[in-house]
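Per reviewer request, we include the raw input and output of the structure prediction for the construct analysed in the revised manuscript.
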Amino acid sequence: MAKKPNLRDEVEALRAELNALRDEKPSSEKSAKETTIQADEETGDAPRQEELFEDEQPTQADIEKAVNEFLHSFKDEVNERPVVSVALAFVLGIVIGRLSKS
């Protein structure tokens, strides 16, 4: 009888696949920042901390764009399912009310 894979085995297999995909980065995807850092390593100059983390800091425009996209998708979801949205708001109100009493 074939052994049925359990959830833990499936999760471990997915993690292994994700790690393999992360490690596998084509050279064409290297950013200019990585190229600069590699050049600095070759010359012996240490890159400044600002250079290393410059691309990771979200700007105000990035945050505004993300919030607007979320609000737009939320509005679409409410328009598609108004009854579910009202029911969810009602349940959420009950939960918040009970938490505030404690």
